[in-house]
Amino acid sequence: MDSLEQRFLKSLAKQYPTVAAASTEIINLQAILSLPKGTEHFITDIHGEYEQFNHVIKNASGSVRRKIDEEFGNTLSIKDKKSLASLIYYPREKLDIILRDEDESTIEDWYKITLHRLVQITKRVSSKYTRSKVRKALPKDFEYVIEELITEKAEIQNKEAYYNEIINTIIRIGRAPEFITALSNLIQRLVIDHLHIVGDIYDRGPGPHIVMDTLCKYHSVDVQWGNHDIVWMGAASGHLACIANVIRNSAKYGNLDTLEEGYGINLIPLATFAMEVYKDTNCDVFGIKYNTEYDTKDLSLDMKMHKAITIIQFKLEGQLIMRRPEFEMNDRLLLEHINYENKTITIDGKEYHMKDTDFPTINKERPYELTKEEEQVMERLRQAFVKCEKLKKHVRFLFSKGSLYKIYNSNLLYHGCMPMTEEGEFQKVNVYGKEYSGKALYDILEYYARKGYYAHDDLQEKLKGQDIMWYIWVGPNSPVFGKDKMATFERYFVEEKEPHAEVKNSYYRLLDNEEVINKILTEFGLDVDKSHIVNGHVPVELKKGDSPVKCGGKLLIIDGGFSKAYHEKTGIAGYTLVASSYGMRLVAHETFESTESAIINESDIISDTIILETSTMRQKIADTDIGAELRESIRQLEDLLVAYRSGTIMERM
């Protein structure tokens, strides 16, 4: 035994000081390996649609209803199953309605029936976990009682009477509503073991901050950053171009309340500036894509703010592109190509008519230069973003639980794509003077993104990292963006559709090319016969016959349009993926009406399920990444046993 190994075993011996303690842990870990693997839930492209997201989390893409069907079969009516599912999803809200409508003479019977049903479901969803893991998930107020009810006790001859007495007492002392809520939340907690968010929490919908609050409290989660997430992360770091993009997107979709009320970011400096400078300016091009909750009395001001921040964005991005020639984005320097007399612009050598050239803050000689007033507005906005505690909490969560990609149980997760050449080779990308491709490109971009937020001692390195966050959001070779350009300018100002085109990376043309998909899996060290790629970003247009299943099931694109802005285009309201011990299933969701309807009318998201893979033998923890870690722990403990028995390390009795 070398000295390093001996030091490690001595450290391990502090945790397991005797042969008995080490042996017990080996037995425990070995037993855990034989349990079924936990169920994983994959969601992508939430885009601030917090009501639908929360419902999908609560119903676990139909997994709760499946458990109800498995447990009760034909012994419960469809109506009773719907009612039970609705109660599990929204226990407090549903109880308020039931207690208001139910007759006092029948409420006790309802409590008894409901509690027995919830206990049965809890037993089923907890059966594949160790007692220790279930115990850690139990609500503290009812920890002992729930454990008694869901654990078989052979020593109690008349178990039915024992369990009935527990439930009767809960009802008699007035704790039934709290107990129902606790059991419902526990079922939600246990039905999904781990959650994967494959990017794009932010923008378009009204509640990304609510989604983030939910994720921060979720028991087990990871996040693969989407381009809409990374631009918010850049904004939180204080990067001006990212801040301008975040505000412009929020203004465009009528979601400035997300910034002002959701995060407490003061937009008065921008509003005051826009009212003064753009008061006599035509803002028709800057319409708001608002929803039914939008207050139209703000429309005129919001359009002015929309125009003001958009012009500032184009200026800031122009400065950045000139600062970073290695980004190779000079084709996005468009302000200098405007002909104000003719109201035209030249793009790629072709002249187009512009719908708007009334830009009071643009200096025609120095078009990318901010006015003094614009500089003051952006500095005040920068201070508001970097000092926002809630945004800081959410972004640090994204850095701690997130990354540009993740390998988990033989699945490669990333939001966008792997940049490829037309020939199917990994695209080489210049990052500050050195070329990267494949996995190395992902790694270097993430390295700089983390520097952009956390570096404080070296401001030059911090700025390089911040600029990379903007590049990840919009760069032509960004694996998270995946297009040759973001035609924001053209969509605002050019009537002709030709320059609007955003050409997707060759990756999307090669999705059914098994050689290419195998190359990507191999690049990340995965077995090509057992692994999958899961990504989102590009909505699957089911109504046009597109399929989320590519390359014979090796690649799954699960963006089906959570965002309401995409529903008409995709024909559905999002995909989610569920991977259980029995295999993988893809769930296509219909439009979610509302939380209120789900509670009052017991409506659910109607979903179609595509069975992707089924296992002839149920997968166990031994087959997972956690299983590999447990086997390594067992090996180390067995080495410790050898050391104890040989006298190399002494037991501490």
Secondary structure layout plus pairing:
Layout (H helix, E strand, L loop, with lengths): L2 H13 L3 H14 L7 E4 L6 H10 L3 H10 L5 H12 L1 H11 L2 H23 L4 H7 L5 H8 L8 H14 L3 H16 L2 E4 L10 H10 L3 E4 L2 H10 L3 H13 L3 H7 L5 H10 L21 H25 L14 E2 L4 E4 L2 E4 L18 H15 L2 H13 E2 L1 E4 L2 E4 L14 E3 L2 E3 L1 H17 L4 H16 L13 H6 L20 H10 L8 E4 L13 E2 L4 E3 L9 H4 L4 E6 L2 E7 L5 H6 L6 E8 L10 H22 L7
Parallel strand pairs: 1-2, 2-3, 3-7, 9-12, 12-14
Antiparallel strand pairs: 1-15, 4-5, 5-6, 8-9, 10-11, 13-14, 15-16, 16-17
Q: What can you see in these coordinates?
A:
The chain is α/β, with parallel strands linked by helices and 653 residues long. A 7-stranded mixed β-sheet has the order 7-3-2-1-15-16-17. A 5-stranded mixed β-sheet has the order 8-9-12-14-13, with no helix packed on it. It has a 3-stranded antiparallel β-sheet with strand order 4-5-6, with no helix packed on it. The mean pLDDT is 91.
